[in-house]
Fold each of these.
Amino acid sequence: MIAAVSRAVGHAALFAAAAGLGCVAIGLALPLPEVPQVREKLEWFRAHRGDYTALFLGTSRVRRHVIPALFDQLAAEQGIEMRSFNLGVDSLASPEDGYVLDQALAAAPPRLRYVFIELSYFRANFAGQGAETIRSAYWHDWERTRTVWRQLLREDWRQIKPLKKRKKQRWSGWIAEVSEWASLAGAHGRLFLQRGANLGRGAAWLRQLTGLRSPADPLAPLGPARDGFIPSDTVMTGAAAAEYQRQLDALATANSRQRQLDPVPQENLEAMLARVRAHGAEPILFIAPSTGGLIFHPRREVARLLDFSDPGKWPALFDPQFRADLGHLNSAGADAFTRALFTAAKLPPQDR
Amino acid sequence: MLFVQFRFLIYFLVVFCVHWALRGNTSRKVWLLASSHFFYACLFFGGPDSASADTFPLWTFYTTIRDHQPLPVGWWFPIVLWGSTIMDYLVGLGIGDAKTEGKRRAWLLVSLAINLGVLCVFKYANFALDSVYAALNWFGLHTSKPVLGIFLPYGISFYTFQSMSYSIDVYRRRLEPVRSFLDLAFFISFFPQLVAGPIVRAMTFLPQVFVTRVWANVNVRACFALFFIGFVKKACISENVAPIADAFFAAPGKYDLYSSFIGVAFYAIQIYCDFSGYTDMAIACSRLLGYELTINFDFPYFSRSITEFWRKWHISLSTWLRDYLYISLGGNRGSKIFTYRNLMLTMLLGGLWHGASWTFVIWGGLHGLALVVHREWQRATEQAGATFKKVMAVLAVPLTFYWIMITWVFFRAQNVFDEKTRELKRSGFSVAKEVLEAICLFQGGGSRSFTIWCLWLFLALAAVHFANSRRWLSTWWQRIPDWLFSALLGGGFAVALFFVPTKYKAFIYFQF
């Protein structure tokens, strides 16, 4: 009996090892997954890696706020050789941004000197994104999955009120919170396995092969100038404009929404900065102008930080005329922001 | 839950380990009965997407009770299942204890009436009302459309037929009535075949239930190989050809002639791989627990006639219809017209069994017509020359497949309803008409086209399928050492997982 069970366990282990090796081998041979904006931008960056000296990484607030052509022009006027690329992706939160950065750095861009990183929120849940999409799965390598688990264990777990302190709430509320926490942790584990097993990759490839999916313009996410910037000529009006004004008026003090990064996101950020420095580039952090949400600051000084979140210090960036919607600048606003970013960056002239 | 899901792997591991750890036959049956009902509950307790969602809905059910929310649709499905089981258990005992033929027949009629009545109410009530409403409107007698909130319990088409097979076999004295309710309940509720078959006969399954299963009799390697084949069919092939078929049937008039044939051919692949894949996995799981289920498919697309097709497609249903309907109607024991009548009735009802829609009835009717035509053809060509027979032998398979493709159009072309208002947007007949104009009249007037890779994919799948039908690929893996088999299976799963999509459709036959 014991021998039979041992044999069975051995064969199961052999099966698992072969499956694991097979998945790893297939994964190594695969191109980037079909993640909108990410794939197109990274493929372009890799194909033109020798051209770029600066990279802008962040959310849609980078994608729609930073004009590389203008940034390069301003640098040229100062005698600085500059060619920048906008690697902004909608909803690119931590730790996903670290994964995208690693993919960009893996291309070994030889002339990269600056990496501008938007300080974004750390996302451990799937708000706004399906948990079963390739977008949710593709960045779940071991490092990122471990980071999310550590954040869930250190911070989210601590926010669940212990059972003994629940005087008025029923114990079932505790079970509900623990269950939700466990479900979230399990979901990240599942995504790690999904990514490791290359689930969905073949199906996506077949859809393209059979003609079910053929994008009208595969380079559209790169914008008209093919530098990653997406312009918008909209000016916010009506109810949206009224709501924006209300949010602006509510920002009596910028400090009220400032928070320090939790320890795990701080470690994640420092790891990103270390990898940029190891590549020989200088990381520069920045916070985009916004009226909603929390503003996260590093727990300690780890790199230069350019903070554009205070309407008092940057009134032009909060002008309603420069707003396409509540969260984003229009092209005119992007122009103003890019100029402000360049000015604040104070890039040294010795790069001439 | 679906056999291809991760949660099923966890579920089955637990069921398997406890099953073989238990010593007594009774304790094992109790365990499998409880596990089967847990499996059944997972299909609907988590809400409308519960069948294909990859979670155990235990927490959903708990919060529903705790928060006094309405129970999920389908909470009463197990009650119907138990009701059918209890009723047939009593019927079996009644038939066994009855002293006269009249009383035996009366018990049988009770079983048939209740099983068929339950099936008709849940499956065909809305269909009947819709048909009456449509007929009245057609005659100009406008009336408000009746709406009955009737939901079809999962698996009802399969387990009512299984229950009836038990009652009928007891009545025909082919089987002794089961005295242990546990045995009958286990036979009907056994999870590998509960929801989508194969329709297991009491005569073949109950003798296995009476005997304690022995692990030494389980061919583990064959089970894993069969499960892997089923997994590839469902998760890799069916799930990947389905979007092509769906895209085509959503707007058939917009596709060119080549794409029309591709769309229908890919649906033929989808339904075969979906259903036979499910069956393969069900049989494999059942064998791993020591129980043998009926095989359900035998490479039906290489049939040389419709008669042969129905000996190889959904074998458990076709033999059930033959033994309990066709033969009961008189079979071929009368005149030619009488035989053809019985054939047509059997196939029409077989079509109706699949779904409450006229398109399914037409599908069955077309197959009945083909069976009749084939019999006449055989009669007419009995004396034909050798050359003619050789030519027909070559053309038989593609012609039969072409006819099957035409009939699948009616099977697939369902009514399309608006998601919010539930109003009919497009009837299945209009979809079928467009498709048939293309593949029968060669009038594909659209401009959209699938790429040539679809044709290569079809040919590659056909080649592999042909090789399997000749058993060219089914013997080498039986001779290699265990460790090599384990390693190759692992590598095979790695390749299969690459083709698996991130979201599954539920098995097609779950809707029946």
Amino acid sequence: MDVMDKLKILTDAAKYDAACTSSGVDRRGSGGSIGSAVSCGICHSFSADGRCISLLKVLLTNVCRYDCRYCVNRRSNDVPRAAFTPRELAELTIQFYRRNYIEGLFLSSAVLRDPNYTTEQMIRVLELLRNAYHFAGYIHAKAIPGTDPDLITRLGRLADRLSVNIELPSQQSLSLLAPDKKKEAILSPMQQICRQTEENQSDRGRYSSAPSFAPAGQSTQMIIGATPDTDHQILQLTQGLYSKYHLKRVFFSAYTPVAEDPLLPALNTKPPLLREHRLYQADWLLRFYGYRAEELLSDAHPNFHPLLDPKADWALQHPEFFPVEVTTASYETLLRVPGIGPASARRIAISRRQSRPNFTHLKKMGVVLKRAQYFITCGGHTLLPLTLSREAVLRSLISQQGVQWLQDQQAFTGEQLSLFPASAGLLEELSSCLPLSN
Amino acid sequence: MFTPVELIYLCEDSYEGFLSCVFESFLKKERPENILSENSPQLVLLPSRRIPADSARARRVEAFLPRCLGLSLYRLIQYSYLSCFPQKELYMLMLIQETYEHRSFNLGEEPLHSLYACVRRLERETQHLKGFIRFTDYDGYLVSVIHPQNYVLPLLAGHFADRFPQENLLIYDAEHHAALSCLQGQCELFPLESLALNEVSSPEQQIHTLWKEYCRTVAIEGRLNPPAQRNLMPMHFRKDMTEFEKEVR
């Protein structure tokens, strides 16, 4: 089998892994090596599904001993199998890197023989890249659950980022759908990587020659839509992972059916892209806007609003917080206004030291006034007269696609309603804010 | 302090030329109606004055600017000059004069708003190009052709020289007829009217095919989204990118 066929098979097998950022570490090049890294990451291309191509994302092999029911590479699935030799993969990486196609390598693998053996093969590839080819670009390696701690340490010395896939949001679904992967086998490498990256950060602060261990930190991934877990459960798990393991990112991958199975959604189920999008929006709110998971969702409202993003939803449910006076409010308070993000809030805070902003200035600074106008005052004045209906506010916060979806719902009621556990009352309220056109 | 006059400055097409105009405006305490390049084909109805580039005057202005503006605004001026904003010289002069006079600024007002916007576009294009530039190996030399809207070569030099210290690179800017060469980490910028390239060798073609196949395979069929792809990767970059080049024969 030549390199082209192997590349096709092993790229196809790896593409459902959502993580592909090349961010997190700044590393200047040096004379004897090839490569550097920038902490903001660089997108080298975008695939036809709109996702960033930044790394060469492949499996070392798709020959797997496990039989996880949602996975295309599971033992019982009849697909072509292939494996790269370490030299082939290293050479491919370097040739792509030289031509500026990629920032580096994203290496994962199916479990060949056992986790330790597989990890040793991955370490061989990375050692070849770092030591023989003197590669100083970005490497993201997947740690296989169940691997020995010593091998994880060796892997972390060579890679920039490590990740262990959480796979599924609850232990129950994990034991049903992926019985070979035990919860402890997943969490204990995460704990080890968290501890070692933090120890390493303080070591490198004290000793300049300390070898680095996963300087870009740790991330994880879970599959959305394969199990009946609610958004509330997923978001709480995400918040817990950030606080306990100090992850850099949690990735959500919308479940794409690859197999017929009584425990999984039907083969013709569309991937829950809107749900994945809402979870990423909520993830951003947790990390950059200072929200807590409890503020966004609760047991009474366990799922995200289909038409409103989580921030707008929170704003409508908390009218006591508004209006916010733009000239005096703190940065954290400004972040809570729909239409104001970290960049606009920062610009407002900087320029109001020099002069008083007005609404024209706010618009030029990047504030989305169409959304924010209902929630802010500037020098005591609002942009619009105060007699506003809730419907008017709701209409301005729903996106164009949301309006289209709602009109489709009005025309065609039926099974689609079950996609979102929205109450009849909610849909009525939303319908009332649309113009009466059919 | 600066009286607006109905006059057009014609300056040389260089940073030194611009700095000489700044010197002239401070000397005469005036603000011209517009600053145009002396080679510009634009028809001017107002009286114009040609300002020759003077290196002594330019050096004095260059020493004065960081003190007057502060480091962040000085950087803004330097970067604005690289951008493709048509009235950049006039706005840069306005910024210098206003900061000298009033010492305060509002990010929502001209000229700062426009200058920040055009520098943001410049930086965004640079960031795009750091990822979208594709090199082709011609006998050990890595060559790339780009068509940027802004003059980004000075901003790309450091990144690529640092990343490939042992390679020999050439990036040709076909819009501005300039080239950047990084030979073993040493960079040089020089004008280049045109670049003729040989046919791509067969081993090189194989690597191109591998990359095209990779890009095609990595997309998930159930999530195809060409509008998102177009939004994140504007169409005008694609003509220089390997994965979008037409199949050879």
